[in-house]
Amino acid sequence: MNEPSRTGVLCLHGFTGSPHTMQPVSDAVVAAGFDVTAPCLPGHGTVVDDMLDTTWADWSATVEEAYRRARAAHDRVVLVGLSMGGALCAWLAARHGVDAVAFINPMVLPVDPGVQDMVREMIATGEVFAPQVGTGRSDIADPDAVENAYAETPLRPVLTLFEAIDRLQPELANITCPVVIMTSPQDHVVDPASSDLLASSVSGPVERVMLPRSYHVATHDYDKQLVIDTVLDLIRRTDAA
């Protein structure tokens, strides 16, 4: 029987996504001999109606418990998160002795207050989902790639995400561990300036990696191997420390 790895890895997907979003990374990490936890956040991975009564409090509680279990079983813990998963990684890293974090197009830039007010007005009028925009498919440059994610954006849950990101701002400086921030310049979901904000706000060492051929869901896009290699390099360096 193989011994459990000294370093545990927590992979967190984004808003309306599922563990499938992170699967190329999590599979590669397992193949490299590390233990991986990739929780399905409440309301995700089934049908979008299951998200309607979920909030940031539910998602953060889920990752808090996953982190607690990983920390209890391993000497070191590395976080990996895409989009809202990146925000959840930042939330965890600001509160705990995380050993390293790999961010992929992290969603940590505050959303314009006017947009938040517009969402509140839509909710007040009884709207449940945001109007469809674009193609309704995930933001991936590779036309052959598919992500298991919802096409709709439920309004009440996304508003709790916006509000949590606002509250997260003063906490980013509490992140003192090494971080790698991977950024797609052609991201149609999260402004690449979000990565810049994160890089300038954390207190620990920062590495930047550009994903020039990918859109938002880079874990399933043309730069997928670069994402995997970057994550594995961070985990190996952390494991060897």
3D structure, described in words:
The protein is of the alpha/beta class and 241 residues long. The protein has one domain: Alpha/Beta hydrolase fold, catalytic domain (Rossmann fold, 3-Layer(aba) Sandwich), CATH 3.40.50.1820. The protein is built from seven helices and six strands, in the order βαβαβαβααβαβα. It has helices spanning 19-31, 56-73, 84-93, 113-124, 155-168, 193-201, 224-240, and strands at residues 7-12, 35-37, 76-82, 100-104, 179-183, 206-210. It has a six-stranded parallel β-sheet with strand order 2-1-3-4-5-6, with helices on both faces. Strand 3 (76-82), helix 3 (84-93) and strand 4 (100-104) form a beta-alpha-beta unit. Helix 1 (19-31) packs across helix 7 (224-240) and helix 4 (113-124) packs antiparallel against helix 5. The chain is globular.
Brief sketch in words of this structure:
This protein has helices at residues 19-31, 56-73, 84-93, 113-124, 155-168, 193-201, 224-240; strands at residues 7-12, 35-37, 76-82, 100-104, 179-183, 206-210. It is α/β, with parallel strands linked by helices and 241 residues long.
